[in-house]
Amino acid sequence: MQKEDDDSLLGRRTYLKLGGATLAALALGTGSASAESHPYTLIVDGSDTSESTEYVFEVSETIQKISSTSTDSSSDTVSDGRVEGSVTDGVDAYEFSGNITSFSFDGPAVVKCGENIEQTVEHTIEIISTEDPSELTYEFTATDEITKIFNDTRNSAETRNDQISQNSDGTWTAQGYTGNGYGDSFKFKGELVEFSPNTGPFKLLIDGQEVDPSEFGSQTSEPTDDSTPTGPAIGGGDGYPNTVAPSEADYLVSSTRELVSAFDDASSGDVVYVEGGAEIDVGRRELTVPRGITLASDRGINGAEGGLIKTDHSPWAMLEVQDDVRITGLQVGGPRWDWVEADDTELGIDARGSNIEIDNVNAFGWGYAAIRSNDDTHIHHCHLHHNPREGHGYGVATEGSDNPIIEYNLFDHNRHSVQGNGGGYTIRYNHVKADAISHVFDQHRPGGTTMKIYNNTVEAIYDELEDEKVPAVAIRGVPDDIADIHDNWFYNPVEPRDNPSGWTNEAIIQVHTDEWRNVSFNNNHYGSSEPSSDIGCPR
Fold this sequence. Notes:
Layout: H1 6-11, E1 16-17, H2 22-26, E2 40-45, E3 53-59, E4 63-68, E5 77-79, E6 82-87, E7 91-96, E8 100-106, E9 110-114, E10 122-129, E11 135-142, E12 146-148, E13 163-166, E14 172-179, E15 183-189, E16 192-196, E17 202-206, E18 209-211, E19 251-253, H3 256-265, E20 271-274, E21 279-281, E22 287-289, E23 294-296, E24 308-310, E25 316-321, E26 326-328, E27 331-333, E28 347-351, E29 357-359, E30 362-364, E31 369-373, E32 378-380, E33 383-387, E34 394-397, E35 405-407, E36 410-414, E37 416-419, E38 425-428, E39 431-432, E40 441-443, E41 450-454, E42 457-458, E43 473-476, E44 482-486, E45 489-490, E46 508-511, E47 519-522, E48 525-526
Parallel strand pairs: 1-9, 19-20, 20-23, 21-24, 22-25, 23-26, 24-27, 25-28, 26-29, 27-30, 28-31, 29-32, 30-33, 31-34, 32-35, 33-36, 34-37, 35-38, 36-39, 38-41, 39-42, 40-43, 41-44, 42-45, 43-46, 44-47, 45-48
Antiparallel strand pairs: 2-7, 2-9, 3-6, 3-8, 4-7, 5-6, 10-15, 10-17, 11-14, 11-16, 12-15, 13-14, 17-18
Protein name: Right handed beta helix domain-containing protein
């Protein structure tokens, strides 16, 4: 470590910012400041480099550490007016009184010092869900800028779900949504002035230390008749927290011509917004939703049903979706409603790319499927219904994709709510209503890869066409890994057999084998009597 005097400190690439009236008071070995009336801030900023900076400084009166976002801050020490520390890819900040009596450092960090620069200090805030399943909608306000942290693995902020805005009074507010044991992370400057809610299945960390949310002025109260509904908002619509407002639109459309033009012109990050109440009949057109955009409408905002994109023809598909797209708040309507036998067929949304999110969508009337996944599509809080065609008729067709997540959806009047065709999926926290045609959750031969089916409520007991019991889960063949079926509430009261025996009518069956192979089921509830609260979908 190199010892630096005042002149060399000011002349290096790493420098001490001493300006205006504070220069004389803070210059090494001169001046003084009252701890009560003139606290100063010193910041060692290494956020623009991955190279470590080591530092030691001493003050004549008191000092305390107020923040650190550095990756190596655990060894920093503060004692008797002396600080010894290091900073790598982050910022260390201190508040002190008196004058700096010595300062030495080695490394590329930038050092800033003075009065009233606390607003330049970056703090971290983490909101971590502590239960699975659970949902959390939160909001917090800081006196200065808030930014998202994207590299915190399970606790990374979301590109779309979490929103940040600057308020007219200069403060900043973040609104977000998380749950199921995951979390979100942000950086903020200045002070945290409000956080809500003040209780719930989560913990709040500031600069890595758990704090009580009620310290930040958050308030909770009993909901009134006109308050926003709470709970999981299964199926989306009223009470769904992550809607997109019309004010966020880059393109506002209400006709086929405007929709096609917006898709042609939009760039990644843009929002194409279908006006609430609009009905766009695309006819025989098959449209491509371009990479990186959000296609949205107002479903769930003040009771709105969402703009409708529809066809009376049989496209394949009406909306073909590329990478990194979000579709939210829309109605997506096809030409079907009642049961049909073999005929022309059609597909509503074909999620062809990766990292696609489809949420808060009301989709109906599709002979093949309302939504087809080809990769890691996240399908949640949708109402998928009236897709009843012989041989097909799916709410979601996962085809051969391995990693789609299908959760918090409401299914009704489909031939199969979810179909698999050789890949895998996660199906959780969904509610399937009583009207069904054939079994509910399906996997075709040869049996798929890894299927996780848990915490769903399936009311369907009978095939409404045949008046016979239908399975909630049918695995055809033998999974490569496992079909793990647990903690579901199946209204079908008939429990699985000791050994499978073809197309029978128990709640869980495995076909094309005479023994259970790579299928696990436990802690499921059978029958319409209500189970404990941790069985079935959230309610």
